[in-house]
Specification:
The chain has a two-stranded antiparallel sheet with strand order 1-2. The chain is globular. Helix content is 73%, strand content 2%. It has two domains: 425 residues, no CATH class; 45 residues, no CATH class. The protein contains 17 helices and two strands. The longest helix has 37 residues. The two termini are 19 Å apart.
Length: 511
């Protein structure tokens, strides 16, 4: 018999068990996102500001990819928590296939709309060629990110949080080496610059997709087959879209709001644009810990809610906040104290450094509010309450953040830090509102999985329930309160699974 490793996710799961690998993964992802900025800062200041503009658009594309990816994390976590292992391969296949098709469509759309995007953002003539080139290449390969996002969510919900960490490390090395070759190495003679950096990013993502799919099959997490989509699971797709659209809508409205603020900053001059780009690089590191904690709690909350343990989920989220909030504020404060020195890693322009120093002080308040939002909004989505965060996002982003940022930054003539003051107002007030919603338990009873859903899904996918033919997932033993994952291919080819629809303990052959 092979050695068996059991991964248990329930109310007793230590936060750092999931958050630790995710923290490293997010740190490495942040490095990947910002290594282009860091390496280009010694190449051309205009190129840095241009990449900042382009990344705003790339983030918007990623939001749209996450319609299905986010829904996948909620559905997979709750179905695993409810022990509905017989439907997991169908869910995996549906999520990957749909996001791949959506990725191809959006990649083409953003490339076609590139000139209009530049005009909307008021990108300066000096930066426009760089921004457009980056969007054509990285945006054109966006479908790779769409597939990667879904695969990573699937592996995380199955307890494999370290795979993202390892993949992120590998693609960072690939990206750095590629950037060096195009900017300063043997390929620098081609004069590609920004285009070379973009090519390195796309190639790194291609490698990431190959690796994570290989890991999916190596760990026997499940299988992907279009045959599982016959008959096509319309109800399941509808459920995933119902979850994903409000989530994507919330992120989209936030990004549109940030894009509008960016258009204000673009009107303040190139120094303000560059200061924003450099500060956002530093800020992205400060928010990593709270983001990792929120993502980990989302997985735990999904499993607990799927298992019917709402009270345990309620308490667990507040435990997370007691850990993440003080550390987040400490990191943001350290960032503000050291920014006069860290900004010198990017530029020696004293005006940019002075602007950046003020921005980083305001960002302490932004990060405190953002920590509240990430913790409670992620948990609300995991519990199935995905509409309320959207409504609060629209109301607070545009009603508070935009109006305050415009009034202070533009009308009052304060400048770029006034824009960040608007963001701080939005984050803090919205964070308190969603925390109160969680505290009052308004999300109880919104679970994605219930008895009726289970029966409906069986009727759609299988016709009359035939238990002996329904399970095509990995070999594993499922306990009453948690799920387990077997990593050894030498384990028994049978496992026991409790089917909530029938409440009978039955045996199945593995796939």
């Amino acid at each position: 018999m092979g050695k068996k490793k059991t991964i248990v996710i329930d109310e007793k799961t230590p936060l750092l068990f999931l958050a630790g690998p995710m923290f490293i993964e997010l740190f490495l992802n942040t490095m990947l996102n910002n290594v282009d900025t860091i390496m280009l800062s010694h190449y051309n200041d205009y190129a840095v500001g241009a990449i900042g503009n382009a990344n705003t658009i790339m983030f918007m594309m990623n939001i749209l990819f996450n319609v299905i990816a986010t829904a996948t994390s909620v559905v997979v976590a709750q179905y695993l928590g409810a022990k509905r292992h017989d439907k997991m391969n169908m869910i995996y296949t549906l999520a990957i296939a749909v996001n791949f098709v959506v990725g191809l469509i959006l990649s083409g759309t953003f490339c076609a709309a590139n000139p209009l995007i530049m005009k909307f953002l008021h990108v300066s003539p000096e930066m426009r060629p760089y921004s457009m080139a980056y969007i054509y290449i990285v945006g054109g390969g966006g479908f790779l990110l769409a597939v990667f996002n879904v695969m990573v969510q699937i592996m995380r919900c199955n307890g494999y949080t370290k795979i993202g960490m390892y993949v992120s490390f590998a693609i960072n090395i690939i990206n750095i080496v590629g950037n060096y070759l195009f900017l300063y190495g043997p390929l620098s003679g081609l004069g590609m610059g920004v285009e070379g950096v973009a090519i390195s990013t796309v190639f790194a993502r291609f490698v990431a997709v190959i690796v994570v799919i290989a890991f999916f099959y190596a760990t026997r997490t499940g299988k992907i087959s279009l045959k599982l989509l016959r008959p096509f699971p319309k109800r399941l797709l509808g459920k995933m879209i119902k979850i994903g659209l409000p989530t994507a809508g919330e992120n989209l409205t936030y990004n549109l709001y940030q894009t509008t603020l960016l258009s204000f900053v673009n009107g303040m001059g190139n120094d303000a644009v560059s200061a924003r780009a450099y500060c956002n690089t530093l800020i992205s590191f400060a928010m990593i810990f709270s983001n990792a904690c929120a993502m980990s709690t989302q997985i735990i909350t999904g499993h607990l809610v799927g298992a019917g343990k709402q009270d345990a989920a309620y308490k667990r989220v507040f435990r997370t906040l007691r850990t993440s909030m003080p550390i987040t504020i400490a990191l943001a404060s350290i960032n503000a104290i050291l920014c006069r020195y860290t900004l010198q890693l990017f530029t020696d322009n004293e005006n940019i450094i002075a602007l950046g120093t003020t921005i980083m002080i305001v960002d302490i308040f932004v990060e405190a509010g953002r920590c509240l939002n990430m913790t409670f909004v992620s948990s609300l989505k995991a519990a199935g309450a995905y509409v309320f965060p959207l409504l609060m996002g629209i109301l607070c982003n545009w009603g508070l953040g935009l109006t305050t940022g415009y009034a202070v930054g533009v009308l009052a003539g304060v400048g770029v830090w006034g824009i960040y003051a608007g963001t701080a107002t939005d984050e803090c007030i919205r964070g308190l509102i969603v925390m109160y919603y969680w505290y009052k338990k308004k999300w109880y009873g919104k679970s994605v999985v219930d008895r009726k859903d289970a029966l409906d899904l069986d009727d759609e996918a299988d016709g009359p329930l035939k238990v002996s033919e329904s399970v095509e997932t990995a070999e594993e033993s499922v306990s009453e309160s948690a799920f387990t994952v077997e990593e050894s291919p030498e384990e028994s080819d049978e496992f026991e699974c409790a089917i909530p629809a029938k409440r009978d303990l039955v045996k199945h052959k593995s796939c």
